[in-house]
Amino acid sequence: MSDKEKEYYDFLTVGAGGFFGAISRYLLAGQFTAISGTLLVNVLGSILLGFLMYDSEYLGYVSARKRMFFGIGFLGSLTTFSTFAVQSFQMAMPDSVLNILLNITLTITGVFAGRGLVIFISNQRRHTNGL
Prior knowledge:
Elements: H1 3-29, H2 34-59, H3 64-78, H4 81-90, H5 93-128
Helix pairs in contact: 1-3, 2-3, 2-4, 2-5, 4-5
């Protein structure tokens, strides 16, 4: 495969992931109020991203192509910093500060929770297989 073909395939991979991530965000966030829906997709996406990135960095079960699809495309499109920022700007000051604190705290906690989950699963698999 030539470099140009690989680059084209990379664009399609990220684009397909983005398409499904955007649809998922629309469906998930649409089940809640605007602010809680945004918080939900950001926290869920952060948990999944923590899981995915730790796995790909240290365990190697996820291929580079799948990381592009899920990490850049799907999760990049599922989560939404811009909507969170606009919603926070449009709120009254006390509500805005609370929204900012919740989003930042819960999304960072989500990344660590996802990371912790993949470490736990990996350790369980090692113990189960006698390694």
